[in-house]
Amino acid sequence: AQSVTQLGSHVSVSEGALVLLRCNYSSSVPPYLFWYVQYPNQGLQLLLKYTTGATLVKGINGFEAEFKKSETSFHLTKPSAHMSDAAEYFCAVSGGNNDMRFGAGTRLTVKP
Amino acid sequence: KAGVTQTPRYLIKTRGQQVTLSCSPISGHRSVSWYQQTPGQGLQFLFEYFSETQRNKGNFPGRFSGRQFSNSRSEMNVSTLELGDSALYLCASSLALVPNTEAFFGQGTRLTVV
Question: Cβ contacts of residue B62 below 8 Å, gap of 6+?
Answer without folding.
Answer: none
